Amino acid sequence: FSKERFDKAVEKAQASIGVSSGESKDIKSVQKQQVESITVKSNNKINVIPIGNINYIEAQDDYIFVFTNEGRFMKKQTMKSIEQQLSKNFIRIHRSYIVSKNQIKSIEKYGKESYVVNLKCEKQLTVSRSRYQDLKDTLGF
Fold first, then answer.
1. Quick check: 95 and 86 in contact, CB under 8 A?
2. How far is CA 123 from CA 29, 56, 57, 103, 126, in A?
3. pLDDT tens digit sequence for 95-136
4. Digit-coded pLDDT (tens) for 77-101
5. Checking DSSP bridges between strand 71-76 and strand 90-94, what pairing results, if any?
6. 15: helix, strand or coil
7. CA 33 – CA 25 distance, rounded (Å)
8. Spatial contact of 127 and 117, defined as CB atoms under 8 Å apart
9. What is the tens place of the pLDDT at every residue in 19-77?
10. Going by C-beta distance under 8 Å and a sequence separation of 6 or more, which residues neighbour residue 108?
11. How far apart are CA 53 and CA 37, in angstroms?
């Protein structure tokens, strides 16, 4: 990159997140900005998935799989970064799962100290022991 191309790329990125060239935002505040949709590439199409359509997100290495009623979509992104972008309507229940609170149908004890979340989409996800208390506090029980 030449300096000129780099500066144009920075301006374009700033414009996409709502920062003018005269303003400055630190990276952490930009990362915490919540998104209204997630863009994923599937075959030769780019899909824009509204946050409200997401049932849950599953992690595998540096990829996430976004599950909706329309299907499963893969994106190269870490769970930590997507978790920071999602609204308070989502909760991390396991190192591999983030679920929409609106999709939670029930929570069941599974084994001695294990729990699973039953989703409205008929999926059952494991809750980690360390995340169970957060889930209880968030849902208010």
1. no
2. 34, 10, 12, 10, 10
3. 999 999 999 999 999 888 889 999 999 999 999 998 998 898
4. 999 999 999 988 999 999 999 999 9
5. unpaired
6. helix
7. 11
8. yes
9. 554 544 444 444 456 778 899 988 888 899 999 999 999 999 889 999 999 999 999 99
10. 115, 116, 118
11. 9
Range 3-38 burial, b when 16+ CB lie within 10 A, else e: eeeeeeeeeeebeeeebeeeeeeeeeeeeeeeeeeb
Determine the pLDDT at residue 104.
Answer: 95
pTM, 2 dp: 0.74
| Residue indicated by tokens 């591999």 | 96
Q: How far apart are CA 1 and CA 67, in angstroms?
A: 37
| Phi and psi, residue 11, nearest 5° | -60, -40
Q: Encode 98-129: b = buried (16+ Cβ within 10 Å), e = exposed.
A: bbbeebbeebeeeeeeebbbebeeebebebbe
User: How many Å apart are CA 5 and CA 100, to the nearest integer?
Assistant: 40
